[in-house]
Design a protein that fits this description.
185 residues, alpha/beta, 6-stranded mixed sheet, 5-stranded mixed sheet, 11 strands
């Protein structure tokens, strides 16, 4: 087996949508987190991992940038692709409620999938580097005025309470992920 075989790179913190996709679609691989899309793709090119799973398109907002452009420029082989449903949850530290929460932190792409819902709740969106990274930051703060928009699994990982499930504005919210290899198919 190659040095990176059995390992799948994704962008984000544990509990992110890409982490969820890796563990669901490639349960035999070790899911390896990278802070940026660039770092995940560089790890694949360097042979540190055998593949990378990257989101490139969302049914609600279109291209997922900068990921889509980086994938196009990376000169890697697309092995497969899959559309996955994306369900956003609003989560906060224990004791928080929809009355105490003032802000919701998340990746800009996730925030663009729920602006009407957040506005209706009177919650101000705040951009963060990652969905699960925002959940981790909110959990570490313990601030009852801060929430995160992330996958429900992130609430489990970071011991947050889910204040509301399915806050995406579109019922049919999906993201297309591509599985990449450094080797030609």
């Amino acid at each position: 087996m190659a040095a990176g075989g059995g390992r799948c790179a994704y962008q984000g913190a544990p509990g992110a949508f890409s982490h969820e996709a890796c563990t669901d679609l490639r349960p035999w691989d070790e899911a390896v987190a990278y802070e940026t899309f660039e770092a995940a793709l560089a790890a694949l090119k360097a042979g540190e991992v055998g593949c990378a799973l990257i989101p490139v398109e969302n049914s609600s907002i279109g291209r997922v940038e900068p990921a889509a452009t980086l994938v196009e420029a990376a000169n890697l082989t697309v092995v497969s692709e899959v559309w996955r449903p994306i369900r956003l949850a609003l989560m906060a530290p224990a004791g928080a409620s929809l009355r105490t929460v003032r802000t919701a932190e998340s990746h800009p792409v996730a925030l663009r999938q729920c602006p009407a819902t957040l506005a209706a709740l009177g919650i101000t969106p705040v951009e963060a580097f990652d969905t699960a990274g925002a959940a981790r930051s909110v959990a570490e703060s313990g601030d009852l005025s801060r929430a995160a928009v992330a996958p429900a699994r992130a609430a489990e990982v970071y011991e947050l309470s889910i204040l509301r499930n399915d806050i995406q504005d579109s019922e049919d919210n999906r993201t297309r992920f591509v599985l990449l290899s450094a080797n030609p198919a």
